[in-house]
Amino acid sequence: MPWYVFALVDRPPAARPGRGFGNALSARPVPGGFVVVERRADVPPVELGTLTQHDAVVSRLADAVPAILPVRFGTLLETDEIDEALAEREEEIAEAFDAVRGRVQFTWRVARGARGARGAQGARGAEGAQGALSGREYLRRAAKAAKAAPPPAFRGVREKLARLIATERYQAAAVSVPGSLYHLVDRGDIERYRLVAEKLALAPSAVRVSGPFPPFAFTPALL
Predict the structure, then answer these.
(1) For site-directed labelling of 223, which of 69, 93, 153, 185 has its Cα 20 to 30 A away?
(2) How far are the Cα atoms of 139, 146, 152, 168 from residue 136, in angstroms, in the given order?
(3) Which residues are registered as beta bridge partners of 5?
């Protein structure tokens, strides 16, 4: 029976990791760390309840380990598939753990159509507006979107919180996803960050904050 994968962690939780969707979790050693898995025959249905449960398991694990790299919902793999995917990637995994260790993610979003919200459009958004793109043009626009600067609506957020931000990542808006600004924040700075963030979110503006979360937006595609 294959394994449903929730996350990679730099060390096993000190206490029992609990249960996943119904079965006990286990932390198995892999190149560069440990993978937290649950035995399952199939992927749970994609619906609000299972998505919420997946996130709850990852959040619980994040509170129990120094560093976590969440794995996307629906990852079901055999043992040899996990080992093959992570083979010879110890350095990449170590760098990813170093980036997120002792940190959490906050997410800022801006409503579509709000003043100052429009930034560079993602590649999928451009395709939807102008029809099918060639492979070369799609990749060019995707690369441009990845380097896009946050729109003006986020300017005050960055200025007020700069001292508390360990790492920042901006995700340009796509067809059905608003532009998002992600911050990695040291756990010791959570309360100070939250106080400033709540004041900014209460001010008349289009930006809203959520978190703290595990570092979903700062995890490389490993599995």
Answers:
(1) 185
(2) 5, 15, 30, 28
(3) 37
DSSP 8-state class, residue 82: H
Amino acid letter, 69: L
Note the residue count of the chain. 223
Q: Which residues contact 36 (CB under 8 A, 6 or more apart)?
A: 5, 6, 7, 8, 9, 17, 25, 26, 27, 61
pLDDT at 131: 44
What the block records as the tokens of 178 is 């608003």
- pLDDT tens-place string over residues 133-181: 455 554 555 455 556 677 788 888 999 999 999 999 999 887 777 889 9
Q: Of 157, 145, 62, whose CA–CA distance to 105 is shortest?
A: 62
Which residue has 């350095």 as its token pair?
A: 91
What integer pLDDT is reported at residue 116 of this predicted model? 46
Which helix or strand (DSSP H or E) is residue 20 part of?
A: none
Return d(Cα 169, Cα 192) in angstroms, integer: 20
Segments of the chain with pLDDT less than 50: 116-133, 138, 142
**How many CB atoms lie under 10 A from the CB of residue 173?**
23
The reported pTM is 0.82
Q: Which two tokens stand for residue 8?
A: 């990679």
pLDDT value of position 134:
53
Pair of tokens at residue 55: 């996130």
Tell me the sheet residues that pair with 25: 38
